[in-house]
Design brief:
186 residues; alpha+beta; four-stranded antiparallel beta sheet; two-stranded parallel sheet; 4 helices; 6 strands; 30% helix; disordered C terminus
Length: 186
C-alpha cells in the first residue's frame, strides 16, 4: 500500500473531495471526469467529476500534510483571445463559414466552451492560490487542443522540456532538491 492524494468535485454535494483512501484508479477517473466529456464516477454513492470544477490548483488541502515545499504546475492558462469582428455572427453566417471552409469567425467549439465555462471560477481562485506555493509555473501548450489526445507525445515532450527549463532557471538557493544541498536536510 502507498499513500495517495487526489482531488475531485463531489457533484452531488457541490464540494471538493480530497481522496486519501480507497481505490486509486477510481479516484483518478473521478478527478479527470470532465463534465460533458466523461461520465461522472460513483464513489460512496455520490457522483464525482473533475476537481477543476471547484479548484483547478488544489494546494490548500496539502497544508495538512507534513510537506515543506509545494511545486504547482498549471496546465490551464487561458489566453487573452480577442476576436477580429465587431458583432457576433448569426448561425447562418457560422454555417456558411464552415461550409465554405473559411475561417472568418474564430468561435470556440462546444467542448471548449463547456470546459472553460465550468472552470472560470476555479481559474480566479488559482490566481490567489498560486502565491502560496514554493514554486509555480504554467506549461505552454499553445497549438494543442484541450481534447487533442493524438498529440500526447508532443505534450509529454513539451512538459518535460519546459519543466527542465524552469528548474534550471531557478537560483541555487531555491533548488531544495539539489543533491549538493543534501546535508541541509539531515
Amino acid at each position: 500500500w502507498i499513500n495517495s492524494y487526489c482531488v475531485s468535485t463531489n457533484f452531488s454535494r457541490a464540494t471538493t473531495k480530497i481522496h486519501e483512501r480507497g481505490l486509486l484508479w477510481k479516484q483518478i477517473m473521478a478527478s479527470i471526469a470532465i463534465p460533458g466529456v466523461f461520465p461522472p464516477v460513483v464513489i460512496d454513492q455520490y457522483l464525482h467529476v473533475d476537481g477543476a470544477v471547484m479548484d483547478n490548483l488544489p494546494i490548500e488541502p496539502m497544508y495538512k500534510y507534513p510537506v515543506s515545499k509545494i511545486i504547482a504546475v498549471s496546465l490551464s492558462g487561458l489566453p487573452d483571445r480577442k476576436v477580429d469582428y465587431e458583432d457576433s455572427p448569426n448561425g447562418w453566417a457560422v454555417f456558411m463559414d464552415r461550409f465554405r471552409k473559411k475561417k472568418r469567425f474564430k468561435i470556440p467549439g462546444i467542448g471548449s466552451l463547456i470546459i472553460n465555462s465550468l472552470t472560470l471560477n476555479s481559474l480566479q481562485k488559482q490566481e490567489v492560490t498560486k502565491s502560496k506555493v514554493s514554486h509555480y509555473f504554467e506549461l505552454n501548450l499553445k497549438g494543442i487542443g484541450f481534447m487533442d489526445d493524438r498529440k500526447w507525445k508532443q505534450i509529454l515532450q513539451k512538459g518535460y522540456d519546459q519543466t527542465n527549463e524552469y528548474l534550471e532557471s531557478l537560483p541555487k538557493e531555491e533548488r531544495f532538491w539539489d543533491k549538493n544541498k543534501e546535508e541541509e536536510f539531515v
